Amino acid sequence: MTDVGIVGAGAGAAAAAFVVDGTVPDADVTVLEKSGGLCGRAATRRHDDLTYDYGANYLKSDDDRVVELITETLDDEGLVDVTDPVYTFEADGAVSPGRDADEHKWSYRRGLTQIAKRLFSRTDATVHRRTRVETVRRVEPENTWELDDADGATHGPFDVLLLNPPAPQTAELLRTAEWDDPLRETLVEAVGAVEYRSVWTAVLRYPFALDVPYYALVNTDKEHAVGWISREECKAGHVPDGETLLVVQANDAWSDAKYDDDPAENVAALADHVAEIVGDERLADPAWTDHQGWRYALPEGGVDRGPVDSARDAGLYLLGDWVAGEGRLHAAIANGLDVGERVAYGI
């Protein structure tokens, strides 16, 4: 039997577990996830009759393997495609047509978390939620891995260990790991060098429909406090007819500066910005709001793959969008598929 431990239940981890469980006949996969949810920043919440993706906004069709996985391999029931285009706006708030109007922008009627849920449901993996890993330990001479969680429980031993948290959290796990190998310090340096952008998100509900020709607005010059505004009502099944639900993501500088400020004040400030950008003063007064801060939202680039590749010799695999080098959901899934195949075939 091959015992596989995975830290984090993001989209990449779900894809890797799916491949390993379906390819290695005797694989026993255990996943430890610190939160109560699945799919990492591809997160979905529900409130009354609302469903909304408040982290990643949608899944792009930029990778053929991911497209086949979502549309053919997995059940595509409830898969929805946003057909309205993404427009742009500048620092002065001027809105213009013009970005990726023809590409797929997928979610599900029940939200993006369906990706991880459907992948894990096709496996026999054991998923422990609300389980925060605090210590990674290399066990010699068995050449296995053990994990200690915040409640004092030990998990393992694992023949193979996959680490899926964002790079800063993965670097901290490696920094404190009980692993006497020069490669550990090299990995810490490489993973710790990956920079991240923070995103502070407001969710704004209104009892009226917006008459605009776009699904979303993106700030292309990155000089505005708001980086992104999208309309969840463009996703079938997410918002009641005749209503508007906006997901508003602040830019990195604003998010860093305001991250620990009063959430109500942050939401109000972002609503004011939205009213000005969209040109509708009613948007400054939402009927209901939600919010979320993402400290490690988007990697600025990829990791030095040399140390990451070397770690495979010790049965240690790192995965996620930051390993892929692109802060996109499809990139995380594709990287997970790749890592899963490497584990399965020992490459």
What radius of gyration results from the CA coordinates? 21 Å
Unreliable segments of 5+ consecutive residues: none
SS strand fraction? 25-35%
Query: From the coordinates shown, what is the CATH architecture of the largest domain?
Result: Alpha-Beta Complex
Net shape: globular
SSE pattern: EHEEEEHEEEEHEEEEEHHEEEEHHEHEHH
Protein name: Amine oxidase domain-containing protein
Pfam family, one: Amino_oxidase
GO molecular function: oxidoreductase activity
Brief digest:
With 347 residues, this protein is an alpha/beta fold.
Topology, pairings included?
Blueprint: E1 2-7, H1 11-23, E2 27-32, E3 44-47, E4 50-53, E5 59-60, H2 64-73, E6 79-81, E7 86-89, E8 95-99, E9 105-108, H3 114-121, E10 126-128, E11 133-139, E12 144-149, E13 154-158, E14 160-163, H4 167-175, H5 182-192, E15 196-206, E16 216-219, E17 226-231, E18 244-250, H6 252-258, H7 263-278, E19 288-299, H8 305-311, E20 316-318, H9 321-324, H10 329-345
Parallel strand pairs: 1-2, 1-14, 2-10, 7-16, 14-20
Antiparallel strand pairs: 3-4, 5-9, 6-9, 7-8, 11-12, 12-13, 15-18, 15-19, 16-17, 17-18
Structural summary, described in words:
By secondary structure, the chain is α/β, with parallel strands linked by helices. It folds into two domains: 2-43 and 116-195 and 301-346, FAD/NAD(P)-binding domain; 46-111 and 196-299, Alpha-Beta Complex (Polyamine Oxidase, Chain A, domain 2), CATH 3.90.660. It is 29% helix and 31% strand. The protein has ten helices and 20 strands. It has helices at 11-23, 64-73, 114-121, 167-175, 182-192, 252-258, 263-278, 305-311, 321-324, 329-345, and strands at residues 2-7, 27-32, 44-47, 50-53, 59-60, 79-81, 86-89, 95-99, 105-108, 126-128, 133-139, 144-149, 154-158, 160-163, 196-206, 216-219, 226-231, 244-250, 288-299, 316-318. A seven-stranded mixed sheet has the order 8-7-16-17-18-15-19, with helices on one face. The protein is globular and about 65 Å long. It starts with a strand and ends with a helix.
